[in-house]
Amino acid sequence: MAGHDPAPSCCDCFVALPPHTAAPAVVFGKNADRPRHEVQEIAYIPSAVHRPGDKVQCTYIEIEQAERTHAVVLSRPAWLWGAEMGANEHGVCVGNEGVWTREPVGEGEALLGMDLVRLGLERGGSAREALEVITALLEQHGQGGSCKEEPIPFVYHNTFLLADRHEAWVLETAGRYWAAQRIQEGSRNISNQLSIGTDITAEHPGLRQRAQSQGWWSGVGQFSFAEVFSLAQQPPRMEAAKSRYRAGKELLQQHAGRITAETFMAILRDKDSGICVDSEGFRTAGSMVSVLPQDPALPCVHFFTATPDPSRSVFKPFVFVPGLKPAPQVSSPTFSDDPAKKVPRFQSTVDRRHELYRRHQAALELMEKDQERGQELLQTLRDLEKQGLEAVNALLAGNVAPKPEELAELFFDCVDAEMKFYK
């Protein structure tokens, strides 16, 4: 049945706010765990003004375009329109996770959860606005369609973590129904399961009526979204998510009051907990960490790996500034006869690897074949990442004032430096 593939499928998303952060900032992080050979690219889409009546083609369906769309940077599976995670020019970050609930998943094509990530970022100037965009589009168009670049459908519903400089929101869905929880302090994580209980800040207007009509809730007493809408018999992947959720929560608590970008990078690299995935069928295909200072005079900084397995990848900083230098090294090739865009879909395969992915792949093979040389290379990469972090920390502390053109070239330069080490 669609959506019940025995292979593990998992993602973990984290957010920390004061007083759990070391500085007056919100820190966001996510691992995108995807089919093992799927390529994740980094895409920058500038802001735009659109004409009345314009449409936008998402992964599977076309919808009305907004009058204005914000500039976004996305970490996305290279075959689709949306994104696993990303940020916009206003300091909004969004990531999604797959879930299975009492509402059936349908194989009919609609909006993917990953499409909703991008739509929320392009149209929302704050985390709350992005949430309102996503829920309105969810209610209007529904969610559905295969989430994997293979002929056998793989379908799920979605939960989301949204953050900006001041607050965060957890949004959890079941079909067109949803519940949301506002986070104003401390820390929170999500992991492929419903986690909103009775502390519901906003919800679909027909949520409780739906639960009553299906016999899932009596209508008496407290209403827990997770208890009411979770499956009585959980798929194996959701059972496995419970231990990752607990481990993630414990790691957040261990570092409470001291959380930085480096803390989240370490958590995303944690293999013992299962947060960093490296299995036969699935692995962590890309990772993201963002620092969103509460001081509007300071820039938001977003770190992306653009390569699999964060424990053996480099987090590279990106800052929204005018005149950004493109980074074609992390852009996948496009195809005029793309099997993801033809019906029936996914009847053939294409090579979507970008140049950084190819070189990183060769480096991973070296690390596995020659442990000594592999460790030397890994240490070199860690030193490279440390240089980027030190520069960003000085920027966020207000100790340096780089020229706009330097920030415009920052991500390109970091990608280029990493590629040179793989030669």
What does this structure look like?
With 423 residues, the chain is an alpha+beta fold. It has ten helices and 18 strands. A hairpin with a 4-residue loop joins strand 5 (55-57) and strand 6 (62-64). It is globular and about 60 Å long. 48% of the residues are buried.
Sketch the major β-sheet: 8 strands, antiparallel
Number of strands: 18
Count of individual helical segments: 10
State the share of residues found in helices, binned by percent: 25-40%
Portion in beta strands: 15-25%
Strand arrangement within the widest β-sheet reads: 3-8-9-10-11-12-13-15
Integer average pLDDT: 94
Distance N to C terminus: 45 Å
**Uncertain runs:** 1-8
Instruction: Please write the string of helix (H) and strand (E) elements.
Output: EEEEEEEEEEHHEEEEEHHHHEEEHHHH
Based on CA atoms alone, the radius of gyration comes out at: 20 Å
**Structural class based on helices, strands and sheet pairing:** alpha+beta
Characteristics:
alpha+beta, 423 residues
